[in-house]
Specification:
This protein is an alpha+beta fold and 395 residues long. The chain has helices spanning 2-15, 23-33, 47-68, 183-201, 207-241, 250-255, 259-283, 328-339, 370-386, and strands spanning 90-95, 101-102, 108-110, 114-116, 128-135, 141-147, 160-165, 171-173, 178-179, 244-248, 286-290, 316-318, 325-327. It has a five-stranded mixed beta sheet with strand order 9-8-7-10-11, with helices on both faces. The longest helix has 35 residues, at 207-241. The two termini are 26 Å apart. The structure holds zinc ion. Zinc ion (ZN) is lined by residues 300, 302-303, 305, 319, 321-322, 324. Zinc ion (ZN) binds at residues 300, 302-303, 305, 319, 321-322, 324.
Length: 395
């Protein structure tokens, strides 16, 4: 409201050929407007928040002017636009001089709002310098704190690992572990699909449709939360347990896969890879992204013979040169690690021939073996150990 009023005032002055309204003038108008009937409620809002709205507008204008003069790095920004109530997502920011406070009881004290109960997703490592309260399109409130931290490097460790990101499994590691999305994420995704189908059936503009739209937004938010949690847990565990990690550049992934599947998974993959990268930097680990044209699924990780592409349904094959039975995904993960110069052994990519059920090696089925279930057990162990969130980055 304040943002919009101030923006409208500046626009009007500009249209009338008057000089650019200064912050002082805007502030004075804001104070004057508090006496008018339509704006009297502003008296109930913390003054700092009102000033913040003006400051946000100034930032928007500064970016716009800098962009016009070509002084701004990054994407061009347009003229500030009116903030809409239909945006369904609203936020206010309290800086330190707004005197917000985290109480010993765990409640959050906000000026002119009072003490609010907070469900903490993690402990604050130090005194926060600001808090942003966000109301998302699903009607949920979040408090996001900015804290100063200086996490140290973790003690050095031995293992290094290659990671193959895929559709069948979220990630396959060069040590043979295959990681699928956890059940809570799959359940949230299923619910989202159902809600979306409901929404398509509803009449446009009906009250019911609006209700369903909110449900879809909530389901969406839950999926996003669950996916982020999963990415955090896995990336934290990988960075904690390995001195170096290597991932294939995601552009390669799209080549052999359908466009739809790629677009659905791309966003998740790049968010995950970004986490790996910043956590590696944060904790003093090595991070490698290997180039676009490494034939990771064409090379035997045992003898390095490159024997050409294999159709996607071939999950296990026998190397024509050394005779080793290879698991497609683990073999790729080993090759990713090698391409980054990491010393990993190929032994986990090898499949014992007596465990290869020949009739199962076909499209759509997945060879189950004793070794496989041992790997699955390894993954749940990874998750039991990896659940605590120990990254300390500012949100
Ligand atoms: Zn070979």
């Amino acid at each position: 409201m304040v943002f919009n009023d101030a923006l409208a005032a500046r626009e009007a002055a500009y249209q009338a050929g008057e000089p650019y309204l200064t912050d002082g003038e805007l502030s004075a108008r804001l104070t004057a407007s508090k006496a008018t009937a339509g704006r009297v409620w502003l008296n109930d809002v913390s003054a700092v928040v009102l000033q913040q709205a003006l400051a946000d507008l100034n930032t928007a204008y500064r970016n716009f002017f800098a962009s016009l003069q070509g002084k701004r790095n990054g994407p061009k920004t347009g003229k500030p636009t009116l903030r809409s109530r239909k945006d369904h997502r609203q936020s206010i920011r309290f800086t330190a001089n707004a005197r917000f406070k985290v109480l010993p009881s765990g409640k959050l004290r906000l000026p002119k709002i009072g003490n609010v109960q907070v469900r903490w997703s993690r402990l604050l490592p130090s005194e926060p310098s600001s808090v942003t309260v966000i109301r998302d399109s699903a009607g949920r409130y979040f408090a996001s704190f900015v804290v100063e931290t200086s996490p140290g490097a973790l003690p050095e460790t031995g293992p290094v690992i290659g990671i193959d990101l895929g559709l069948r499994h979220f990630a396959v590691l060069s040590d043979g572990r295959k990681i699928t999305a956890p059940r809570f994420l799959r359940r949230a995704e299923k619910l989202l699909k159902r809600r979306q189908r409901e929404l398509w059936r509803k009449q446009n503009g009906s009250a019911n449709r609006d209700k369903t739209r909110r449900k879809v937004a909530r389901a969406h938010a839950r999926v996003a939360d669950a996916r982020r949690d999963f990415h955090h847990q896995l990336s934290t565990a990988l960075i904690r347990d390995n001195q170096a990690v290597a991932v294939e550049d995601l552009a390669v992934q799209g080549l052999g896969r359908t466009r739809l599947a790629k677009s659905v998974h791309d966003a998740g993959w790049s968010a995950f890879v970004a986490m790996l990268e910043y956590k590696a930097r944060l904790y003093g680990r090595e991070f490698h992204r290997i180039g676009r044209f490494e034939p990771t699924s064409q090379t035997c990780s045992a003898c390095r013979l490159k024997d050409g592409p294999k159709p996607l349904h071939v999950r296990i094959w026998r190397c024509g040169s050394c005779g080793t039975w290879l698991d497609r995904d683990v073999n790729a993960a080993v090759n990713v690690a090698r391409a980054a110069g990491l010393a990993v052994t190929a032994c986990r990519a090898q499949v014992r021939p007596d465990l290869v059920p020949a009739q199962r090696v076909e499209a759509g089925t997945h060879p189950k073996s004793h070794r496989q279930s041992a790997r699955q057990a390894g993954i749940s162990a990874l998750f039991r150990g990896g659940v605590e969130v120990n990254e300390r980055a500012s949100p």
